[in-house]
Design brief:
Radius of gyration: 13 Å
Structural class: alpha+beta
Strand content: 15-25%
Shape: globular
Strand order of the largest sheet: 1-2-3-4
Order of helices and strands: EHHEEE
């Protein structure tokens, strides 16, 4: 995926967190904690920053890893 911003991912995961907190979705506790941590990390970054999503990793325009999403094994 190209030309996505921190704001895009922040809004997606913020919405997921809100749904979890409202009981609309009910994932396991470790997923809830992970969602919360993603929102916290992304909220501190510049929203306009362009990022690439490659192989489960968000990378900023300077090549720095922003987030690494866990990958399901044997998937």
């Amino acid at each position: 995926m190209k030309n996505l911003t921190i704001e895009h991912f922040y809004e997606v995961y913020k919405t997921r967190l809100e749904m979890q907190e409202a009981g609309i979705t009910n994932p396991p506790e470790h997923i809830r904690e992970f969602t919360k941590s993603i929102v916290e990390v992304l909220s501190k970054l510049p929203m306009e920053e362009i990022v690439d999503y490659v192989d489960g990793t968000l990378v900023d325009s300077k090549g720095n890893i922003v987030l690494k999403f866990p990958q399901k094994k044997d998937y």
